[in-house]
Amino acid sequence: MVARLLVAVACCCATIPAAAQFSDDFSDGDFTTNPTWAGDVDRWAVAPLLSDPALRTDGLAEADTIFLATPSEVSYGRWAFTFTHEGVNLSNFNGARIFLMADAADLTGDVFGYFVQFGTNNSDEVRLYRLDGDAAGGRVELGRSAAPLLEGDSSTVAVTVARAEDDTWTVAVEGVEVLTATDGTYRTSRYFGVWVKHTAPAAQAYFFDGFVVTGTTGPVDTTPPALAGVAVLNAQTLEVHFDEAVDLGSACDPARFEVSGGVGPPSLVACPPEAFAQTLPLLFAEPIPNGDYMLTARNIADAAGNVLDEGSLDFTVEVVTDTTPPALVAAEALDANTVLVRFSEPPETTSAGNPLNYEIAPGIGFPVEAEILAASPTDVLLQLGPPLAPGVAYTLTARNIADAVGNVLDEGSVAFFFGELGATPLPGEVVVNEIFYDTPAAGDALEFVELFNRSDQLFDLNGFFLADDRGVPVPLTTLSKPLPPGGYAVLVRDAAAFQSAFPGVDFVEVEGWPALNNGGDAVVLSFGAAVIDSVAYTPAWGGQDVSLERRDPAGPSNAAVNWRSSVDPAGATPGAVNSVFEPDTSPPQPLFAEQQGENTLDLFFDEPLDPAFLAPGQFRLDGTAPATLALLENGTRLRLTFAAPLVGAEVALENLRDLTGNVLGGASLPLAYLPRPGDLLFNEVLYDPLADAFDARPDQPEYIEWVNAGTRRLSLRGLILAEALDETGGFSSQTIFDTLLALPPGGFVVIYDDDASLEDAFPESDFRTPAVRVMPVGSVTSRGLLDAGETLRLLARDS
What we know:
This protein is 2% helix and 45% strand. By secondary structure, the protein is an all-beta fold. The radius of gyration is 32 Å and the shape is globular. The relative contact order is 0.07.
């Protein structure tokens, strides 16, 4: 069933005259003219949607990201359109964006602008983002709707976006505000567009229609840029922030900047390849001593040509003294007689150049020569006496290696391999085993991902790639580093932060680390072009201030039931067995059976089912098998569709298998039907309870009681209590049961105000019998039960 939801992003404040506009309802059957859309034109089509033509994705049957863009200079005004998805649950890997403003036509590249997003982290809200010229990680969330707006595998959303002259964006659903944000970073636009990320089954699941864009190109920028902040990254690197994007043609000249106290200009401004940027790193040849300074910037222009003649900001350098010894990161055999050794920081020449500080086992011993490479001061080249043998796993041990300030690595070891690591991993042979995404200290620097080799093969980490939900893979390492059977590989964002928190644990520092979002993200491990494992986590799975650990390496990657927060005192277990390690040896268990429609019912399970071992004949409703079945909600919900209306009280099932191979031989559970008019009746209302703080008796709460007056077991999930407010028929409502809950024939259900105790107030009543359900709620109604009388309604959920 397709649920239709009308969403409006309402115009706020002043009316903006329509100085520029375009519209397209695709009624001409063409998207290449009037207006002209460009991009992945071979992967889009005009197709009917509810008998009207609409723009539809027509991608290949593979995971892909596709886009179309059309010229638009509207940056203040109104954007209206309709978005539909059919037969796909929106997530990290299935979602859509509407680019309201973009400075480039390639919407998969490094764009500056704003977009509305549908679908991320398995969430169903609508979000508004700003994109700061970095497709891999430069997006800033400006706001999101509080309520889910895109539930289910199909929905249609009519959207209107407006931006007022005071840079306020406001989102409303049927006139009710759900998202308001203020941002004026970008005031010009060149393109409007659509962007879709889809999996193979969802290549034709997205529709867009009714584009109407009106407004102006925004106010003329006559204000020069200003210094907004100075961040000290380390003793030799400052990061200067401007209040708007500046022209890098002027800002990349080191002579435009100067630091007081005799420090002078930087030796280099590390400018990105784009034409404009708001943040610039300034690199200095010598460390800046701790103290107070002033940074001055001169003759810096913005995108509109306005020039900052001179601006200054005070800042303080307080660089913590290095107390961490160098860490042994990796070793790689370049040939049978040469081994490259890499440290986390440049080692001191005397200790690192002493061959007696290195030892290779088995059978090699000390090298004959050790040399620090001038072109790469973190690397040491070892020349060996006895040659390495092909196919042998070796261990390099380094001892007494100091850094430039005298911190000494007493001993560190790392494995390496000589010869080709011929094994190519299959999906699931190496899994993401632990994710530290919400770190309690050291900022995001302590983020790490742990891999576990489930196979009996030896793999080389050089060849694996890591990505997040933006889908931009980065190599784990450029060195040969073995991952043995049953072995762990800890991938870290920052070597120094990880070594300080978990000393002695072997790790691989990943250059270009894909930052892990605390609000939910994806961790995708690939080998070449093949995805080996992927995990799309959400905060609901756990992992706040501790790592998120996998319970069973053989279990499903994308099921919340297979992940838990670490219970280790250190908050994580990198390179070791997880603290919540618990192999799944139990078969799937049915939790609830609920009618969904006249001839459909859903079965809820405690873990995902294996779809390869499902058939209609495994299920019976009082002896009748369903005609079809479909897995929902990542395999934990199974929908059975029968050829005739449902009749029966008991669902029997057999031979169900989970994703680790455990089989449930047989089970049965009662079917809870959706209430019909007359099934569930108001039976008692206490609107004027006894409540006296001085009568030595427990206060009574307000409550409402219903009785199941029918002959069938009833589902209470999603029932809505509504109150009449006025003569127009308007009313407020609240969902009173949001859990899997059923009531037998003749049973009672009571909701009561949880400010008081129902059992204390009525000690003579037995609330523990299965025929009685009691549910505390924050308030029985939104206003409390009126003593003067009112009308209450009990409504069924929409679906």
